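Field log, afternoon session.

UNIT: design team B
ACTIVITY: writing a sequence onto a fixed backbone
BACKBONE:
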C-alpha cells in the first residue's frame, strides 16, 4: 500500500500504541487530527505534555495527583477510618462515580501475576502495609479490597488479607454477583455461584 505521508503514518503508529486502539481506529483518529484547526492541535499537544510534566503519585495513597498529597487524601470531609484498595487509578474513578464511598483509597498499580513476572514487591503493597501501621494517620478500622474478580485478583486479595489480619484491622471485599438489570439466564455459572454465596437478608 502506498504511504501518502510519513508524518501521518507516524501519528497512526502512535495512536495504535494506545490500549484497545486497533489500526483502523488509529487511522480514523489520525485523520481527525488532520482536519482539526491548528490551535486545537496545539491545545491537544499541550495537554499531553502537561500531563506528563505535572502528574505524580500521591505520597499517601499512590493515586495520580498534581500535588504531593492528592485531593482525596487531603480532604477533611473524607473518612480516614476506611481505606478502599483498588488496582488502578481508573478503578478509583469508577468507585467515585458511584458517589457512595466516603473514605480514602490506596492504589496498587497492578495485581500479583506470577505468569507475567509481577510479584508483591512490584506493586504498592508495601506502601499500603506501611500506611496501615503508621501512627500519625488516624485509626483505620476497615480495609475494603475492591479488586477485579480474576485469578490474579483473588491471589492479590489472599496475599493482602494475610498481611493485614495480624494488624487487627477488619478486611472486607466488594460484593460480587448479578448486576442490576441483568437476566439470570445470561449470567455465567461462576457469577451465579458468587451471587448466591454473597446473598444478604431482605
Amino acid at each position: 500500500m502506498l504511504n501518502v505521508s510519513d508524518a501521518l503514518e507516524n501519528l497512526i503508529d502512535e495512536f495504535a500504541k494506545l490500549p484497545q486502539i486497533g489500526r483502523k481506529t488509529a487511522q480514523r483518529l489520525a485523520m481527525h487530527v488532520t482536519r482539526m484547526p491548528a490551535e486545537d492541535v496545539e491545545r491537544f499537544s499541550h495537554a499531553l505534555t502537561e500531563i506528563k510534566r505535572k502528574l505524580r503519585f500521591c505520597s499517601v495513597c499512590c493515586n495520580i495527583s498534581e500535588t504531593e498529597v492528592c485531593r482525596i487524601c487531603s480532604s477533611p470531609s473524607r473518612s480516614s477510618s476506611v481505606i478502599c484498595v483498588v488496582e488502578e487509578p481508573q478503578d478509583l474513578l469508577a468507585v467515585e462515580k458511584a458517589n457512595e464511598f466516603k473514605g480514602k483509597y490506596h492504589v496498587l498499580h497492578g495485581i500479583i501475576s506470577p505468569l507475567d513476572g509481577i510479584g508483591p514487591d512490584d506493586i504498592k503493597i508495601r506502601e499500603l502495609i506501611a500506611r496501615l501501621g503508621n501512627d500519625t494517620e488516624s485509626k483505620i478500622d476497615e480495609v475494603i479490597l475492591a479488586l477485579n474478580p480474576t485469578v490474579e485478583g483473588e491471589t492479590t486479595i489472599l496475599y493482602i488479607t494475610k498481611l493485614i489480619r495480624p494488624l487487627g484491622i477488619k478486611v472486607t471485599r466488594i460484593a460480587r454477583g448479578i448486576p442490576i438489570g441483568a437476566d439470570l439466564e445470561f449470567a455465567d455459572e461462576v457469577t451465579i455461584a458468587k451471587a448466591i454465596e454473597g446473598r444478604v437478608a431482605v
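LOG NOTE: The chain has a mean pLDDT of 89.
NEXT ACTIVITY: expression trials, pending approval
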